[in-house]
Amino acid sequence: MWPTLLLGLCLGCSKSLAADAGPDISFRNEVQHGIDEGLRYLASQQTTNGWWSTQDHPAVTALALTAFSGEPTGRYKTPSASLEKGYAYLVGSAKPDGGIYQRELASYNTSLAMLALLTGPDGRYDGTLRKARAYLVGLQEDRGERGRLDTPFDGGIGYGGIQKDPDVNNTYTALQALHYSRHLMADQGSRGAKDLDWKAAIHFLESCQNVPGKNPQSWVSTEARDRGGFIYHPGRSMAGGETNAATGKVALRSYGSISYAGLLSYIYADLKPGDPRVAAVMDWLRSNYTLEENPGMGQQGLYYYLHLMTKGLTAAGVNELELKDGRRVVWRREVAMKLLALQKRDGSWVNESPRWWEKDPALTTSYSVIALETLWRGL
User: Fold this and answer.
1) What is the pLDDT of residues 131-155, one digit of tens each?
2) How many Cβ atoms are within 10 Å of 244's Cβ, its own excluded?
3) Residue 85: its H or E element
4) Smallest Cα–Cα separation from 132: which of 69, 85, 196?
5) Which of 69, 33, 64 lies closest to 47, judged by CA?
6) pTM
7) What is the pLDDT of residue 192?
8) Do 67 and 41 touch, CB atoms closer than 8 A?
9) What is the extent of the structural domain holding 218?
């Protein structure tokens, strides 16, 4: 199942690179070494009960399992006994409602657990995955009049439970899981499993994109530096906003990680590269390309930003990224070199900025290894 999940993101671009110049074997070997060291660290951190870091959030274990499954040489194609314990922990976290979580952050944990279970052997977890699909679909918001896209929140997905407001990140993780598990819906045939309302999901994403003239909400920024990027959810940006002294209007700032989440969401919703909404966020990402920080957020969420950049540009089929000033960057090599430079001696990665759990080395190491595995396939 892994080729569907990871190679589906990068197969097209890696083919074109191979046709042009062939793989860079020497640099691939450097990246492979970084992957090996990262996986060695993760293996040392798994508990005897199968989970990583915390029993309360299956998402962390799911990311670690996904990192092992994506190892480029196929070394972990057949899970070891310890990895089998990790999968068993995820399945054991499934609830009667179909979600895969412990107590909170139900959507987030379910979505990432689904991605890990999709890498399991021989369709073993398909029953659990079908129930999880139905659970995520059931979390899609429809406020106001039922069946009408009459509020900015319609179509989005939030954390679930008491945290109902949808946001771009949870919507992205859910769309990713639903996209890669869509074959399970087809398998159900005449039983007619309910699918997500993808049109409504796109409506929600549009409601979170800084595009003046297209998005009518009062918070939309008219500043060129924000145009095309995304915010967290309608009316809120983690990067804050600026108040116009004359009008009192608050314009919300776009930021890096959430803009890559928006790009990926559009791709999973089957919008094409020439679509104006995709083009707008790509323009913002080109204008704000950096590996030194999460644009708009400083060091907060840096590893998630690099992880999503890798997945986003790969999924978009970008081999060289043309920046606003006309320079063309070989972004795969640059991101790989950055991650290798940040790797600790014990093979881990960790962010000294603790926001979004990035001080947890199990989480940040998983982000980094998955990114390197994706990059390896495109080098």
Assistant:
1) 999 999 999 999 989 999 999 999 9
2) 10
3) helix 81-92
4) 196
5) 64
6) 0.94
7) 63
8) no
9) 2-378
